[in-house]
Design goal:
Elements: H1 7-15, H2 38-49, H3 57-65, E1 86-89, E2 92-94, H4 97-107, E3 114-118, H5 124-131, E4 135-140, H6 143-156, E5 160-164, E6 177-182, H7 191-195, E7 197-208, E8 212-219, E9 224-232, H8 240-243
Parallel strand pairs: 3-4, 3-6, 4-5, 6-7
Antiparallel strand pairs: 1-2, 7-8, 8-9
The structure holds S-adenosyl-L-homocysteine.
S-adenosyl-L-homocysteine binds at residues 92-95, 118-119, 121-122, 124-125, 139-142, 145, 166-168, 183-184, 235, 237-239.
């Protein structure tokens, strides 16, 4: 399973005129040019991400800074900056770079804000959020993935707390969150996650089973607003949300 945009929306995305972006070097979150594979990351950001309309300079800088190749298995490293999702073992995938960038931009995370991720996987999305200066909590249901991602994130110095478990009920002790990202697709929006958003907070997630869409849910004073962003394909969210369907 993969996180691909459909052929049609990819075509639309590719038709958008490329946007050149100025590195946000002043903020200091840009990798130095000598950093391993920095050139590949710069090309990835320009050709796959800015070209498809992701504009937030802080998001683009974070994608240039995080060494994505360290989050994929050795056998996949040559493809780490390719325009596609990659296998990370245990039938799971690291999302296509564009989807990571898009979800991060939609989450609109300011430095110091609190973010919950459900579906740590490789830890890459969590690292991108941490590179934006967010405080990140991330939950992964497959224990070996949680363990590996937690160790890698810590070794690279990213401020992410990783826990093994079912993310359906969120992380009540750390709530409320300014943003929640879910990187596996449930058939319905998990109610506990909505309740762990602060007013003004954003929930970004794929929704659906065979046919999925990326949605942005924003908590308001009086309820929630919902926007459908893009058709997507993510791995299914497992655990409690599946059992409730029977
Ligand atoms: N964000 C990840 C992509 C992970 S793919 C990255 O950057 O690499 C989706 C992940 O969600 C998988 O690792 C899968 O095991 C996990 N997952 C699925 N259902 C889950 C649940 N109920 N709670 C927590 N994690 C879940």
């Amino acid at each position: 399973m993969r996180t691909l945009t459909t052929a049609s929306c990819l075509a639309v995305a590719l038709a958008a005129s490329p946007i050149r972006c100025t590195p946000d070097v002043a903020r200091g979150d840009e990798a130095p040019p000598s950093h391993p594979r920095a050139d590949e990351r710069a090309r990835m950001v320009e050709e796959q991400i800015a070209a498809r309309g992701v504009k937030d300079p802080r998001v683009l800088a974070a994608l240039r800074a995080v060494p994505r190749h360290l989050f994929v298995p050795e056998a996949e490293r040559s493809l780490a900056y390719a325009d596609r999702p990659l296998s990370i073992g245990h039938d799971q995938t690291i999302s296509q770079p564009y989807i990571v960038a898009l979800m991060t931009e939609l989450a609109a995370v300011a430095p110091g804000q609190k973010v919950l991720e459900v579906g740590t996987g490789s830890g890459y999305q969590a690292a991108v959020l941490a590179a934006l200066g967010a405080k990140v909590w991330s939950i992964e249901i497959v224990q070996p993935l949680a363990k590996r991602a937690g160790a890698l994130l810590a070794s690279l110095g990213y401020a992410v707390q990783v826990r093994h478990g079912d993310g359906y009920r969120g992380w009540p002790a750390a709530a409320p969150f300014d943003a929640i990202l879910v990187t596996a697709a449930p058939p319905r929006i998990p109610e506990p996650l909505k309740q762990q958003l602060r007013v003004g907070g954003r929930l970004v997630m794929p929704l659906g089973t065979r046919s999925q869409e990326l949605i942005l849910l924003t908590r308001t004073e009086s309820g929630f607003t919902r926007r459908s962003v893009l058709p997507v394909i993510f791995v299914p969210m497992t655990g409690e949300v599946q059992r409730q369907d029977h």
